[in-house]
TrEMBL record:
InterPro entries (UniProt xref): Fumarylacetoacetase-like_C (IPR011234), Fumarylacetoacetase_C_sf (IPR036663)
Superkingdom of the organism of origin: Bacteria
Protein name, UniProt field: Fumarylacetoacetate hydrolase family protein
Gene3D superfamilies in the record: Fumarylacetoacetase-like, C-terminal domain
Gene source species: Rhodanobacter aciditrophus
GO molecular function, one term: hydrolase activity
Keywords of this entry: Hydrolase, Metal-binding
Ranges where the Fumarylacetoacetase-like C-terminal domain occurs: 29-234
Pfam families hit by this protein: FAA_hydrolase (PF01557)
Amino acid sequence: MSLDYVVSPEPEVVLPVVGTDQYFPVRRIYCVGRNYAAHAREMGDDPTRDLPFFFCKDRTCVLPVAFDKASELPYPTSTEQFEYEVELVVALKSGGSNLTLEQAKAAVFGYSVGLDMTRRDLQGAAKKKGRPWESGKAFSNSAPLSPIVPRYDAPLMAEAEVLLKVNGETMQQSNLTHLTWDIAEVIVKLSEQFELRPGDLIMTGTPENVGPVRRGDKMDAVVEGVGSISLTVV
């Protein structure tokens, strides 16, 4: 039976799967806050292994970005402090609650290169008043994402580099050994608070030295073993 909608439903949000003609349907985007010790310090936090905390972006925040093509990123409204955060993104093929480490590892379908773009001034104002972060984090095009590279095509090294350049200058550079909570641990902790589902994405945290971009700036984001994407702010 076909459904009679009172308004037209939003189209599905998908990302291409590298090496196939298939697509990955995005369900929900979970983000891990301050999962690199040096970034925690620059944001005024204690870098010890506190339990990870999470926030979400809506799937309508996704801006698909091809590996082999320069893309444009619109400068958003209502901000004068538009900042980059490069991240390894994990795509899930299965889910559940209270997963074990082995179940968490088995749930990974593949990886993407992502940017957690942030209206930092709006986020900062919300934090000062103890309000939610959505205005600073969950806006249109705030999640530029590369195609998904299946795990079997990307045997991600524990020491894989995470890098961001702005106008050719390296601004963020670290590697996955500096994650406070590694990929499997993040999935386990997330599954204790949410029932994970196939199609979920997890942005695993950003290294230190986040900073602003302006119209005309070019960003190159790299996760070693996954790929690189290029965006110009317009």
